[in-house]
Amino acid sequence: MMNKTFIAALIGLTTLTGSAFAATEPGGFQGPDRTEAVSVAQALELSDDAQVRLSGVITESLGDEKYRFQDDSGNLVVEIDDDEWRGLEVTPETRVTLWGEIDKDWNQVELDVERIELAR
Fold this sequence. Notes:
InterPro entries: BOBF_sf (IPR036700), CarO-like (IPR005220). The protein is of the alpha/beta class and about 120 residues long. It has helices at about 1-20, 40-45, and strands spanning about 35, 50-65, 65-70, 75-80, 95-105, 110-120. It has a domain at about 35-120: CATH 2.40.50.200. The chain has 2 helices and 6 strands, in the order H-E-H-E-E-E-E-E. A hairpin with a 2-residue loop joins strand 3 (about 65-70) and strand 4 (about 75-80). The relative contact order is 0.17.
């Protein structure tokens, strides 16, 4: 009888501990970073591979993980991989902040998004 009680308690404790670890989000530094906040107009003039931070709205989906992003100075195409959304849902009225890298090809400029969050 005592063995059954001990085993039941051990299983319960293991289940609770496993659930607590499974529910935790990965942590990390929360504070200022070196990524420069710029407008779309400024981003369009930067060199290839420049790291930037933009705030504005996503106005439409262009397909193939590409979207049109807009702020008060203009718009540009951004590429947001499906895994970067992390469950975030936005509409054309939702202000977001994007962190990413400028990708210049011939006469086209895009932003390869590395992180997306709701704007603060």
